Amino acid sequence: MNWATHEVTNQVPDLVDYNLYDSDQALRQGVAREGGGAHDASLLAYGAKLGEAASFALACDANNDKPQLEQFDRRGCRVDRVHFHPAWGHFMRQAFRQGMHCSAWEDNQMRPSSFSGVADFAAGGQVARAAAYLMHGQVEAGSLCPITMTSAAIPVLCNEPWFDTIAPRLFSRDYDDRDMPLAGKTSMMIGMGMTEKQGGSDLRSNTTQARPEGAGGRGQPYGLVGHKWFFSSPTSDAHLVLARAEEGFSCFYVPRWLDDGHRNAICLQRLKNKLGNASNASAEVEFQNATGWLVGEPGRGIATLVEMASFTRLDCVLGSAALQRQALVQALHHARHRKAFGELLINQPLMQSVLVDLALESEAATILALRLARTLDAVRGPSASRWHEDQAPRHQRSQTIGDGADSPSGTHNPAGIFAATPLDQAFVRILTPAAKFWVCKRGIEMAAECMEVLGGNGYIEEGPLARLYRETPVNSIWEGSGNVMCLDVLRAMEREPELADALLSWLRPQCLDDALLRQSVNDLRALCETKGASRQRVARRIAQDLVLLTQAALLRAHVPQAVADAFVSTRFGRAGRVFGVIGTPLEAETILGRAFNTL
Length: 599
Ligand SMILES: Cc1cc2nc3c(=O)[nH]c(=O)nc-3n(C[C@H](O)[C@H](O)[C@H](O)COP(=O)(O)OP(=O)(O)OC[C@H]3O[C@@H](n4cnc5c(N)ncnc54)[C@H](O)[C@@H]3O)c2cc1C
Description:
Number of strands: 11
Number of domains: 3
Shape: globular
CATH class of the largest domain: Mainly Alpha
CATH architecture of the largest domain: Up-down Bundle
Order of helices and strands: HHHEEHHHHEEEEEEEHEEHHHHHHHHHHH
Structural class: alpha+beta
Bound molecules: flavin-adenine dinucleotide
Helix content: 40-55%
Distance between the termini: 42 Å
CATH topology of the largest domain: Butyryl-CoA Dehydrogenase, subunit A, domain 3
Radius of gyration: 24 Å
């Protein structure tokens, strides 16, 4: 007699042992097109490594076994250590070896730059890093947080005369997580501390105080007293911290250990119990007269830290594109193996409509993210943070992150870079915050829809979608939440109308031959003219339309017509409110074949 109560059939094998790079035409072609082709072999190897079954298993371990805070040792002495699952170290080592924490700032041969003055931008370095980031985030997203902050700190710190003393460690590919003074370590990580209990967007509400230990001024030590409500990667070797000095809000380099071998007076109060991003530690901290060295000019702290934000915001776009991509391939994989009503899901017309729509969203996010990364490769220059000072009247300042409101001249370039053309500048100043708003929001919807493609199996913790779903909202919240991004878009357009003109002038000719796009770009131009209080009310619409039109223009220029046409017909005119509403384009198989092919 057969005592088996059931046979397991029609269940889908795990999607493992595939190359994340080779199977992603949008990514691989985009890297070549945007100037990162020299890095193809390295990215191919990284894509294979990340796609191994062991890699996916380690990612589960790193997230299931959350970091734990140890505040005191057995004698009652403060130690403020965080214990991670060993799998966390695996992903940090991988990311370091790939150079994602520094490679954007290395030279063409991927060697460290001269470590003095402004670091050279690699040719295609931002694009290659973006591609690696976009793959890493598909497998283990939490480890990207310290990588992002360390990378974004480099263009801020490289202007400091003492940068040479830390540069070799910042550019080291050896991940060294030993909790000890920097002098004995081979590499380092840097975090950032801005958000306080009473406000994260409104940084002018910060209360942390900094008092000079001597004469004060740039490069001088201060004592910091106060707190930070969010302080991710708390065991990083240093954080860039915003605190109020006599001259106004200033940025401080606050190391975890002091040169005399003592731990700096930074007390980790507790770790956040987060919805997602579970492998990464985010703490609440108090500074009990912690020592910090002033970075940049006194009183220009918000501007200095906003230099970091423009790079971290691009990483939010990349991180969301990564989550979208992994959700998509899991959905496609499932639909290619799972039958319902005697037919594979992938062959059923209504499911095709949903999957095509998801594939279009993912490709549009990827193409835009790589184009933004190329812009950062294209813009470089030593006069960094001064490139457009004195252009806006003081009264236009606002108090949210992104406005550089503490600049003596009233303006500051959040990218901290000298942009080559007005269009490049527009991509950095206007489109990057718009993309951070739009792509991150779309990622949340996409994760939910892809989860549903897997049916009930999508909703269980052991499956691949639950973690992706919980991870998506964080990219929309940190580094400036959605509304703050849209206000930043408006602010940039107001202060630098020539950049808005450059962007609209670039978009318009590309839209003329299509009635839907032509109408949309005309509507956008009219919306941009909105004045007064109503202007903020249309900010989300402006950001959304800017991104959609740019994505349409990029897709029409660079990808098969079937993909571009399907994007336009589903995003403009009678666009649906949920995925799959507009109906299956005739070329569904072409689009889905392009979206994910492991052969
Ligand atoms: C997992 C995680 C890790 C983090 N790590 C760090 C870190 O390492 N360092 C750090 O400094 N911060 C960190 N943060 C904090 C994060 O950057 C802030 O939460 C974020 O900037 C929003 O600030 P807030 O939470 O104070 O919200 P608020 O500033 O109170 O904003 C609340 C809401 O109001 C909206 N809003 C604000 N102003 C306006 C306006 N004028 N008009 C319309 N809407 C508005 C915002 O968009 C938001 O939706 C982290 C956050 C998370 C979730």
